[in-house]
Specification:
By secondary structure, this protein is of the alpha+beta class. Helices cover 34% and strands 14% of the residues. The strands form 3 sheets. It has a 3-stranded antiparallel sheet with strand order 3-4-5. α2 crosses α4. The radius of gyration is 20 Å and the shape is elongated.
């Protein structure tokens, strides 16, 4: 829904200018409408995810992931095929409030039990990939930038687009 205009024969530059000219309150209302329509379309999947305690969130003002991304917020998940596996129970979810501690073997739950896993994915959603790259992977050294521990002359991170230039992060 959001990007349909880009496939209607206009140049990317023209579409970018048109969308950039939309007044912010109208853009918020538009994304609120788009988010509501998407939630109606995905109602069954969203209900299934919530039943297995996967939290869904449309932003503090119900404008959805697009506005959350533009504001630099985290907390959104874009389904690339995993949602149905989570909803069906093939991939388990343990909400953070159920975990009281961690050991080398896995989390200890509120009821005192301990779970053992081959892999644990901490999907907190509290900040974006960009913030993680800025915090952990990109540093300024006397000889230039260091990206993921490797000295580099590239201009941006391929994962999140953190720009590297002499004044700091782009």
């Amino acid at each position: 829904m959001v990007y349909k205009i880009y496939g209607e024969g206009l140049s990317t530059e023209d579409v970018d200018l048109m969308t950039a000219a939309i007044p912010y309150p109208i853009m918020e209302d538009t994304y609120r409408w788009i988010t509501r329509k998407g939630a109606e379309y995905d109602r069954e999947l969203l209900e299934s995810l919530n039943q297995v305690r996967f939290r869904t969130y449309f932003g503090s003002d119900d404008t959805g992931f697009q506005m959350m991304f533009m504001r630099g917020e985290g907390g959104y998940y874009i389904d690339v095929g995993c949602s149905r596996l989570i909803a069906s129970g093939r991939i388990g979810v343990i909400p953070a409030e159920d975990v009281t501690d961690w050991t080398g073997d896995g989390p200890i739950l509120r009821d005192g039990s301990q779970k053992q896993f081959d892999a644990v994915i901490l999907a907190t959603g509290y900040c974006t990939c960009r913030k993680q790259c800025e915090k952990f992977w990109v540093t300024r050294s006397p000889t230039g930038w260091v990206l993921c521990g490797v000295s580099t002359s590239i201009s941006k991170c391929a994962t999140c687009g953190v720009g590297l230039h002499s004044q700091g992060f782009g």
